[in-house]
Amino acid sequence: MKALLEILQPGEPDWDLAQAIDPDRLPAHIAIIMDGNGRWANRRSMPRVAGHRAGIGPVRATVETCARLGIEALTLYAFSIENWKRPRQEVDTLWRLLRHYLGKEMSSLMRNGIRLTAIGRLDSLPPDVRRDLDRAVRQTEANSGLRVNLAINYGGRAELVDALNAVLEEARLEGRLSTLQIDEEAVEAHLYTAGQPHPDLLIRTSGEMRISNFLLWQIAYSELYVTDVFWPDFSRSDLLRAICEYQKRDRRFGGLSPRGHGRSSRQPVAEEIGVPAR
Ligand code: FPP
């Protein structure tokens, strides 16, 4: 948090937004569906790929801001399994941009202690993309600051299928397949994001109210924040606004509010719905 204030000037809008954020209640993990690149380009009569190119700036700014805030993990939805349905030229451009980003950002990632991980079905990536990703993941492995998960060739259903198959395979190797009972802990331990906190805040840009097969297991209790802003226009202010909004939410995780909003333990459920309490 302090590191963010260091680069802001009193009086500028982001300064006020940053001051409004409670450093003790930051989301540990932010996940983002970066949507609207194509529409951003269409509105400017530019080819769709120009929107993807313009999407690199907000990736950089978001990573920097999360690192300066002291956020633990950031997951960015960069390429879904379904994105292979797009024209070849667009898919190739996305790979080029990813490789360009990895090449250009490595020194900054290292300087800022950022650890990069890739989540998804990485075996099906073009070999040069896979090689660059593996290298970046290896180089940043020992960094202990912000963890950036790039979701690439990612699908939430595929992740669950992969996790379940891994649970089965492990049991088979250990000779306990016939008595195996799968529980939540077992699935959890084999997710691509095993060991990381679940996203507290899920941001989607471009106004679409969809989850689009993203982190289906992990977002069970995430706070959703949808903004109409297209991803290439998503600024530091937009991110800070999303965090401010997140901090106003009353998170109950299916229980009762610790802050005393809504139902409280002093107000029996039966009474609330008009059933006489015994
Ligand atoms: C969705 O917009 C965006 C994508 C499928 C790709 C996101 C990629 C980037 C932001 C650039 C590279 C990323 C990294 C991590 C270096 P869309 O094309 O679906 O937009 P539309 O809904 O308006 O068509």
Describe the fold and architecture:
By secondary structure, the chain is of the alpha/beta class. It has one domain: Decaprenyl diphosphate synthase-like (Undecaprenyl pyrophosphate synthetase). Helices cover 43% and strands 12% of the residues. The protein contains eleven helices and six strands. It has helices at residues 2-5, 13-20, 37-43, 48-54, 56-69, 88-111, 127-140, 156-173, 184-189, 236-248, 269-272; strands spanning 29-33, 73-80, 115-119, 147-154, 201-204, 223-226. A six-stranded parallel β-sheet has the order 3-4-2-1-5-6, sandwiched between helices. Helix 7 links the parallel strand 3 and strand 4 (147-154). The longest helix is centred in the middle third of the chain and has 24 residues, at 88-111. The radius of gyration is 21 Å and the shape is globular. Residues 262-268 have low confidence and may be disordered. Bound molecules: farnesyl diphosphate (FPP). Farnesyl diphosphate binds next to helix 3, helix 5, strand 2 and helix 6.
